[in-house]
Design brief:
It is built from 11 helices and 8 strands. The chain is of the alpha/beta class and 290 residues long.
Amino acid sequence: MKKKVTVIVPTYQHWDELRKCINALQDQSYPKDAFEVLIINNDPTSKLPSNFELSSNFKLLEQSTPGSYAARNKGIEYATGDIIAFTDSDCIPHRDWLRNGVEALGNEIERVAGHVEVFFESTKLNFIEIYEKMYAFDQENNAKNGVSVTANMIVKKSVFDKVGNFDDLLMSGGDFEWNRRATAQNISLQYCSAVKVRHPSRSNRRAFLQKLRRTTGGMYKVIDGDSTMFLSFFLRGILPPIKAVIPTMNSDKGNFKEKIIALIVMYLVKIYCTCYMLKLCLTDTKLERQ
């Protein structure tokens, strides 16, 4: 008998992207009677378009509390599966995503960090896309450090009884914060390349900078006035990415020119995030919601 899986997909006004995600989930090779999909609408004022057709194993829930982690917690509350699979509304799961994810979980493995493949709109990449090609969603390295992004994470539901839910006060970084709690409790985590989803690269500056502000804002909430953590963040932010040079140059993700561009953009990203952190610390700037 197949284990029951609950797929949780938070969304915020991303109906076009969500349609592709839904199509991929409806086409899963895992038996349809063995999994449910909970779509959590994080903006109840934005309604599901009338031309959306959901299979009988799909449910639409609403969460008015802002933030994707509040939405995920809502999904956990209503989940009936023994296993919970997380992905994002702009992700496109591989057809065998659930099948391989369930197989990757075993008696010794309680969390799986799946592979996230970044894809691009064109073959001619701009600087932002080159940066994302080199560094975005390095799930293998994440798992080595005891964390995973919720774009592709599969977990035994019983883990949440031990660790608790996501911190729904965080607008960003809640997946890493939750995973660090799980790792601190020796909850096993394994990277699995066969558990795949595809994720579109950010290609324009506005979306990219919005992401940087959101993730830095999440770190600001984690630091929460801790001067030691802030000093560490600041010092790491102003120093060139020396430690990244050798891994980047040895990577097979790009050619020599792309690797140099990626390193330069990485340093600019570090400076930008450091300056934004300072702004948050010195002002009452409202954190971006998405």
